[in-house]
Specification:
Elements (H helix, E strand, L loop, with lengths): L4 E8 L16 E2 L2 E2 H9 L6 E6 L4 H7 L3 E4 L6 H7 L1 H10 L2 E8 L7 H13 L3 E8 L9 E4 L5 E5 L6 H4 L4 E9 L3 H6 L15 H7 L3 E6 L11 H21 L3 E2 L12 E2 L4 E2 L4 E2 L4 E2 L4 E2 L4 E2 L2 E3 L4 E2 L4 E2 L3 E3 L4 E13 L4 E13 L4 E2 L4 E3 L9 E3 L4 E2 L4 E3 L2 E3 L4 E2 L4 E2 L8 E2 L11 H15 L1
Parallel strand pairs: 1-4, 1-6, 4-5, 7-11, 12-14, 13-16, 14-17, 15-18, 16-19, 17-20, 18-21, 19-22, 20-23, 21-23, 22-23, 23-24, 24-25, 24-27, 25-28, 26-29, 27-30, 28-31, 29-32, 31-33
Antiparallel strand pairs: 2-3, 6-10, 7-10, 8-9
The structure holds uridine-diphosphate-N-acetylglucosamine and magnesium ion.
The site of uridine-diphosphate-N-acetylglucosamine has 27 residues, from strand 1, helix 3 and strand 10.
Length: 454
């Protein structure tokens, strides 16, 4: 017998008017990842038989962000029930095939959902096949904007009232609609077809599926889930709140994975930041997307790191900036006010102060002096700088790319290197110093005379 499975429908066609943004709401980032990706990531471990995402007209960027999930277009956005119906053609075949017991309807604007929580709602419906609709309930600190769950004395769910349509009495109910529902697959579209739009917003509300099910003699139930995870992002303030909660979660995860965060509340992590054991992150460090840090690395205060791989034993910062394509091998030191982009620094390389290393490759154990700049851009083209192993680049050297410095070479301080440096050469590429004995006093006297004549 084939195991029964579920289909997920994620709604993302709303215009997100309350965000006041040119960008679709569900593409706004939380921990530098679009909200809707968080929702899909929470779904993935549960193995839905299919996932359909409902998007609006002109939302190709949302379709790209959710791939390979398939998308259906709802236009115009006439409410959440109407949105689910827009996915009908995508899921009808699967539903008819018979081994789907439940359709899980989610919103793309609840980025804090965890897989365990979704599983709890699915189980609540599956445990009692007579329950046609299982609704995620929550008790948020600020219930004002949410739909309220109206129950009878025995706790059976009677209907859901949207905040805008609620009477004073209904508005006083603390139990709110978390937005996710697990609905019996065989009843879903019949129940949706019975929903009208006689309400404050003239919209077809998914929430009316509860009343619709009751009228059809079907049971509905509430499963209370953590309010924190069901936070719906409709405004910029709620977006900031979701970010705060997500950062707390990511910091906790990093600590549990064996990293030390000296002042956790000052460290900002991306959803995909990976920190190894015994990593130490000093205060005020910001991680952009795509960072992997191996064991025993120290990231010193006020560093900004994105798109970088940092191998074991490296020390970065304070005040370092690692940009995309940075690859630091074991035991590299990158110090204060050093910027690295699209560069691989071999094992034990030291770039301790005030440098820009872009589009470069630097061999093991090479020392980069203070103020070294790879001049990688001439206004039109980007060019590479290749430095061998065990080389020494003197302070304030400009390496005009494309250029190669051989293994073991020694470039004198203040050089402007425009041609390749052979291995083991001592290269001095600067004007020779000229000393004119006694001429300082003479120069001063002349300048003074000139001033007095003016
Ligand atoms: C909705 C619920 C409310 C619940 C809250 C939880 C309804 C009618 N209300 O309100 O009870 O407490 O979520 O966060 O369901 N969408 C479409 N097409 C539409 C309208 C919306 O796809 O025509 C999508 C939106 O993109 C969004 C989701 O559905 O992802 C929810 O819509 P939203 O406008 O945020 O509903 P809320 O007012 O938050
Ligand atoms: Mg919402």
């Amino acid at each position: 017998m084939s195991r029964s499975r579920f289909i997920a429908i994620v709604l993302a066609a709303g215009e997100g008017t309350r965000l006041n943004s040119a960008r679709p709401k569900v593409l706004h980032d939380v921990a530098l990842q679009p909200m809707i990706r968080h929702v899909l990531d929470a779904l993935a471990p549960l193995g839905p038989a299919a996932t359909a995402v409902v998007i609006g007209r002109d939302m190709d960027d949302v379709a790209r962000a959710v791939a390979p999930a398939r998308t259906a277009i709802q236009w115009p956005p006439r409410g959440t029930a109407d949105a689910v119906k827009a996915a009908r053609s995508l899921v009808a075949d699967r539903l008819a095939a018979g081994n789907i017991d439940t359709v899980l309807v989610l919103f793309g604007d609840t980025p804090l959902l965890r897989s365990e929580t979704l599983a709890a709602l699915l189980d609540a419906r599956r445990r009692t096949p007579a329950v046609a609709v299982a609704v995620a309930g929550m008790r948020p600190a600020e219930p004002a904007p949410y739909g309220r769950l109206v129950q009878d004395r025995d706790g059976a769910l009677l209907r859901i009232v949207e905040a805008k349509d609620a009477s004073a009495e209904e508005g006083a109910i603390g139990l709110c609609n978390g937005g996710i529902m697990a609905i019996a697959g065989r009843h879903l579209f019949a129940l949706l077809d019975r929903i009208g739009n006689d309400n404050a917003k003239r919209e077809f509300y998914l929430t009316d599926i509860v009343a619709s099910a009751r009228e059809a003699g079907l049971a509905c139930r509430v499963t209370e889930l953590p309010a924190e995870e069901l936070l719906g992002v409709n405004t910029r303030a709620e977006l900031a709140e979701a970010e705060r909660l997500m950062q707390q979660r990511l910091r906790r995860r990093a600590l549990e994975a064996g990293a030390t965060l000296v002042a956790p509340e000052t460290v900002f992590l991306a959803a995909d930041t990976r920190l190894g054991r015994d990593v130490v992150i000093e205060p005020n460090v910001v991680f952009g997307p795509g960072v992997t840090v191996a064991e025993n690395v120290r990231i010193r205060a006020f560093s900004h790191i994105e798109g970088a791989r940092i191998a074991a034993g490296a020390i970065v910062g304070p005040f370092a900036r690692l940009r995309p394509g940075t690859d630091l091998e074991e035991d590299v030191h990158v110090g204060n006010f050093v910027e690295v982009k699209a560069s691989r620094l071999g094992r034990g390389v030291k770039a301790s102060h005030l440098s820009y290393l872009g589009d470069s490759e630097i061999g093991a154990a090479t020392n980069i002096g203070a103020g070294t700049i790879t001049c990688n851009y001439d206004g039109f083209n980007k060019s590479r700088t290749i430095i061998g192993e065990g080389a020494f680049i003197g302070s304030n050297t400009a390496l005009v790319a494309p250029v190669t410095v051989g293994n073991g070479a020694y470039v004198a301080t203040g050089s402007v290197v425009t041609a390749d440096v052979p291995a083991d050469a001592l290269t001095i590429a600067r004007a020779r110093q000229v000393d004119k004995p006694g001429r300082a006093a003479e120069l001063r006297a002349r300048l003074k005379r000139q001033r007095n004549e003016r």
